[in-house]
Amino acid sequence: MRLTRLNYILTAVAFISFFLPPVSAEAQVLTDIKVIHATIGPEQFDSRLKPILHELKSVFKYTSYKLLKEQRFDLNFNQEGRVSLPGNRTLLILPSATGGNRIGYHITIQKSNHLIFQTQVLLKNNSSITIGGPELDSGALLINISGALK
Amino acid sequence: MEKKCEAYTSEDISRLVDIELSSDQCRAFEHHLSLCSECSRLFSQYKDLSLAFSRHTHKEAMGIGALHLEHKLEQKIQCSEKKTYQNISGLFGKNFYLKLAGIAAVVMIGFFPFDPTLLGTPSGPSAIVNSVDTEYKSVMIIETQKEKHTIIWFSEGT
User: Fold this and answer.
1) With a CB-CB cutoff of 8 Å, which residues 56-95 of chain A face chain B?
2) Is A68 inside a domain boundary?
3) Which structural domain, as residue segments, surrounds residue A92?
4) Distance from the A42 Cα atom to the nearest Cα atom in chain B, whole angstroms
5) How many CB atoms neighbour CB B16 within 10 A?
6) What is the number of domains present in chain A?
7) What is the least distance, in Å, from the CA of A121 to any CA of chain B?
8) Are A50 and A106 in contact (CB under 8 A)?
9) What is the pTM of this model?
């Protein structure tokens, strides 16, 4: 009988914890960068791009999405992550703050050590943003950045 | 074989037995009965039948008894009270801990903000763009229709 009651309580605790939001005072942010080469050509894509592929296809004319590189960082706030991109470009990413289930990122793209693009975004936890536009081999370079509080 | 009376029908005799005729009709009929053996015989039969029927129904009605009725009524009331008690004990008795856990879960959910992404429906854009700075002229911020995925597109052409 006691065991049954304990089971009920444990079930309730598990149920409640499922709905609890993540604790906002987390120290690290898991940041995943995917560098994608989008072109018009024979249709192909990497299975790791499946979660965002439909979204990209709904906006862009490109038929082929090739994953060039994937890099993961466990970044502290105000700690910079650096990813080298094709065409002598570099991506710098820095989680700046968190609040309201969003992570603040400062994102910079440099070309030949010259700043060509920078943005400040509030990324939803466990979600992603895509930055695109730089030309690459008769296609375009897309950078998908996803962030999750740890 | 007896001769059939032409003055009154069997239906008239039945109405006499049931006292459905007027007093004048009754008197005339009673006078006729004293003269007509056939009608008199039928009247006696119908009367006996009516008497037997009324006796039987009276007996059945008396057979139920007030005590029996009272007992049945008490049983019904007790049964209804028992059902009510079972409903209450169902809430606070046998499954008390399960129900308490359920109530606690509902209360806790009410206290904490619910994350709508758990249901698979995005509540807003995947990213809110606070600022964009580029040396290029063309910048677009796009939000996809289905997943509200945010895309920043910039063209390197000056």
Assistant:
1) 56, 58-59
2) yes
3) 24-149
4) 23
5) 22
6) 1
7) 4
8) no
9) 0.55
